[in-house]
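Input/output pair, single chain:
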Amino acid sequence: MKLLSDLYLENEQGEEVLLKKDVISKFYVCINDINGVSQVLNKKGKPYKTRCRILHKDLGMVLVKHRFEEVKGWLNPSSNKIGFKSWKK
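Output:
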């Protein structure tokens, strides 16, 4: 999965200053540890097409760069049917 996180740097006063926003990093996670998925809304109230929020058992709420429908398909494999189509002549 691709994890979106913000990168902070500590200044001389000990305060954290935002260095870079939405840094993409990869992490490995077991699909069985994901409890739920939700859409992320932009400033206009519309859902992002390539971002969603997952509820992970150990990490908590995590923002990832994957489509909502894609992650929802991982959680419900019975609705995501993969196979071969039989061709008739």
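The first strand starts at residue 2 and ends at 10. The longest helix spans residues 68-75.
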